Amino acid sequence: MADHSHGSPENAVTVAKPGQGGVQKFQDPGLPPHRPRLADTDPRAEKRAERQVGVLFLISIFGTLLFFFGYFFIPLDETIGTLRLQNLLLGLGTAFAMLGIGVGIVHWAKTLMPDHEVAEDRHEIRPEKDRADAEKIIGDILEESGIKRRPLIRNTLLGAGILAIFPAIAIFRDLGPLPGDVLRETMWDEGVRLTRDPSGTPIKASDVTIGSAFHVIPEGLNEAEHKLEEKAKAVVLLMRLNPESLNPSPGREDWGYEGIVAYSKICTHVGCPVALYEQQTHHLLCPCHQSTFDLTQECKVIFGPAARPLPQLPISVDEEGYLVATSDFQEPVGPSYWERG
Amino acid sequence: MSSSAAGQQYQPKTSVGRITNFVDTRVGGSAIVKEFGRKIFPDHWTFMFGEVALYSFVILLLSGTFLTFFFDPSMAETHYDGSYVPLRGIEMSMAYASSLDISFDIRGGLFMRQVHHWSALLFVAAVSVHMLRVFFTGAFRRPRELNWVIGGVLLILAMAAGFTGYSLPDDLLSGNGLRIIDGVVKSIPVVGTYISFFLFGGEFPGTVIIPRLYVLHILLIPALILLLIGIHLFLVVVHKHTQFPGPGRTNDNVVGFPVGPVYAAKAGGFFFIVFGIIAAISAAFTINPIWNYGPYDPSPVSAGTQPDWYIGWVDGALRLMPGVLGNFPFEWNIPFPWGTNTLSLNVLLPALVPAGIVFMLLFAWPWIEAWVTKDRREKHLLDRPRNAPTRTGIGVAGVVFYCVMWAAASSDLIATHFMVSLNDVTYWLRALLFIGPVVGFIAARRIALALQRKDREIVLHGRETGRIVRLPHGEFIEVHEPVDEYKRYKLVSFDSPEVLSAQPDVNGHVPKTEKRRAWASRFFFEDRVAPVTPAELEQAHSHGHHGEVASEHDKAAISSH
């Protein structure tokens, strides 16, 4: 390629300088000559193309029949296999029906309809005179309405119009209640038992062996009036570690019970359930966006997009040996919001 | 009507008859036929993407209408007692139960669900690829800027339609998607919590979100899409379609096939082909098997789940953002006189900034380019992407930026499939988000410039034939065959804007914005590769040249082979 230096644009000769263009242009040779297709010249090829299109339309008819066969002759029972078979037949039937028509028409167009390219002139989108006329008409309309000359009318109309928009916004006020403090409160309270999710059976401290993890809901959740809303805030993960592995900060030493700790399962990022517990590393991982929390550091964020530790639920045991909460969470659970503070 | 005597004019009695008569005698079908019957449309395979989008939308309307007849968008609790045994007796919403019924108890229901979901995926894909085609070929330039903007709005609406529909079955997967939306909405400063409560009618998940999304999904969004598609196509007719430059194709004409019969047949047939392909995919490949996920419950979540592809880039952005960088937290508690408020930048920034950048640049691009080139003439001839190297580079940078976020939405799957650390995947993608677009820009621009040089080669020295010939004096050469004038014209007849240095205004001053424009112009065009001129071709031919047959004697030697 080295010998092709004349083709190189770095060569000063070949780079057009401003003002040089225009005169040095190739002549447009016009549309290339039309090349006849086989079907244009050979009557047998034409007949063949005609038959091919016909066969494609016949395939479409076959497809429609296949659809009806699947629809009427595959009775749905309770196995997923027949459903799959019916879906396959309906789908393939439709596919053949549609593709037969589509490919047939396109083949028809490409082989048998004229393929001469035609040129059509473009026109100005609108003549300039129209534009001038339109400008004058609008000017006349504005003038006759007098809106420019009568500022009182203009300003009051403007004010009225702007104000009239607000009811259209305000009327949506009842879409929902005001947030209030509900995001700060959950069903947890002093003495509320920790129960298994979803059965609702209480958990004894002795059931929780070292290394195990429980998905927990507060007692009575399944009977609660707003079950899903309460559950969306109250779900908890319960794990037991060797007490030496936990490093509670001052004031939180008695929030666990013999190495059993409970943390909110709702991610502090955007609220997915932090459902994955890595038993060996004591990490909690959110499967949605991979925020990782370290259980041995009070669920501090060690990786991912979350910015806050998971809130801890203070727990203890009651006289029957069941795990209970000693209070609600000390901070709002779940994703951050403006009023969280 | 029977009472009207023979020979009298038709006198409609019913209101329907009057409307029919009115339309028939006043609209005049002949004018429409005259306007459209032989209208010319240029033909190119890249012009099909818009058609795919239109047709998949039609299929969405057809399959969606079927689904509305059986779907119940209610969040009222029920116990499932349909055909699918594993979920019998389970408590779930009416929305989920009726989605299961559509799948298991309505014949063809599952097929229609599959068709609807697959065509939704195809719809957004086709809109996206269509927009890339328009961008890379410069079809957004005057007079089509507004139609480009309409296309951008349609892309946003397509994603909104997809997301609202994705949430309707109220299964575990879509419920978690809604929860993420709730988390993102709550991060909006000042009004976020209120928007969340108004949207969900109280606390998440509430009992109103599905019916509300349903109204948006089947009424408001499709109506807007339909309206904008109407305007979009109307403007295509007003502007007439663009075409690639070539012999006989100028800025002042349209070369192609007439609507009737060729184009109508091809485009009409293509609708059936798109439908057929979607049907074949729906027959063979399961999409969104909601019965595997179970009803929505705020506690469980399945690992390795993915949003629909078009939401992936936003989800990926959420994953890439670090919550804490070193010791710098992205969640700020800001003390105000009335109390402390929380600003959650770790959610807000990735949710808003990348999408903001992409769509701002997208909407503004026609005007940015017109400002740089100061060229405000009508452009009906397209650019081959190589002939606009800087634009192509910027487009590729945008695609890379998007694709890194898109890949990040699958970071967990990348980690498990390739057995690498999830954390490392995230770190690499974080770096790639910034480096990738720069590398993409440089590489694409260089490739475009190289292809332009290749085009010059071909025009000046002809096509490499692969024929090696030994000349009488012993030299071996490869025979280059000159291209014919049609092919040559195709390679030389393109727009090639040049650097436009800063122009002084009427007072002889060069304003700052003009200096910036000149800088941008240099950035765009200083490496420009000019099209071959006739003089250059003449020069190339007159030079004795390796690879080309110089003397008559040699020519004779070759032709005897």
Automatic annotation (TrEMBL), chain A:
Alphabetized InterPro entries for the sequence: QcrA_N, Rieske_2Fe-2S, Rieske_2Fe-2S_sf, Rieske_Fe-S_prot
Main location per the UniProt record: membrane
Molecular function GO terms recorded: 2 iron, 2 sulfur cluster binding; metal ion binding; monooxygenase activity; oxidoreductase activity, acting on paired donors, with incorporation or reduction of molecular oxygen
Start and end residues of each Rieske domain: 260-324
GO cellular component: plasma membrane
Residue ranges of coiled coil: none
Annotated segments matching region Disordered: 1-45
This protein's UniProt keywords: 2Fe-2S, Cell membrane, Disulfide bond, Electron transport, Iron, Iron-sulfur, Membrane, Metal-binding, Oxidoreductase, Respiratory chain, Transmembrane, Transmembrane helix, Transport
Function text: Iron-sulfur subunit of the cytochrome bc1 complex, an essential component of the respiratory electron transport chain required for ATP synthesis. The bc1 complex catalyzes the oxidation of menaquinol and the reduction of cytochrome c in the respiratory chain. The bc1 complex operates through a Q-cycle mechanism that couples electron transfer to generation of the proton gradient that drives ATP synthesis.
Similarity annotation: Belongs to the Rieske iron-sulfur protein family.
Protein name: Cytochrome bc1 complex Rieske iron-sulfur subunit
UniProtKB/TrEMBL annotation, chain B:
Cofactor(s) demanded: heme
Ranges of Basic and acidic residues composition bias in the record: 538-561
PROSITE patterns referenced in this protein's UniProt entry, alphabetically: CYTB_NTER
Organism: Arthrobacter subterraneus
UniProt GO BP: respiratory electron transport chain
Coarse class of the protein's main subcellular location: membrane
Keywords: Cell membrane, Electron transport, Heme, Iron, Membrane, Metal-binding, Respiratory chain, Translocase, Transmembrane, Transmembrane helix, Transport
Reactions this protein catalyses: a quinol + 2 Fe(III)-[cytochrome c](out) = a quinone + 2 Fe(II)-[cytochrome c](out) + 2 H(+)(out)
Membrane topology note: Multi-pass membrane protein
The protein's enzyme class: translocase
Gene Ontology CC: plasma membrane
EC number: 7.1.1.8
Protein name stated in the entry: Cytochrome bc1 complex cytochrome b subunit
Gene Ontology molecular-function annotations: metal ion binding; oxidoreductase activity; quinol-cytochrome-c reductase activity
Keyword Transmembrane helix belongs to the record: yes
Domain of life, source organism: Bacteria
Ranges annotated as spanning the membrane: 52-71, 120-140, 146-168, 214-238, 270-291, 347-368, 388-407, 427-444
Gene3D superfamilies, A to Z: Cytochrome Bc1 Complex, Chain C (1.20.810.10)
Region (Disordered) location: 537-561
Residue ranges occupied by any Cytochrome b/b6 N-terminal region profile domain in the UniProt entry: 19-245
Pfam families: Cytochrom_B_N_2
Location within or outside the cell: Cell membrane
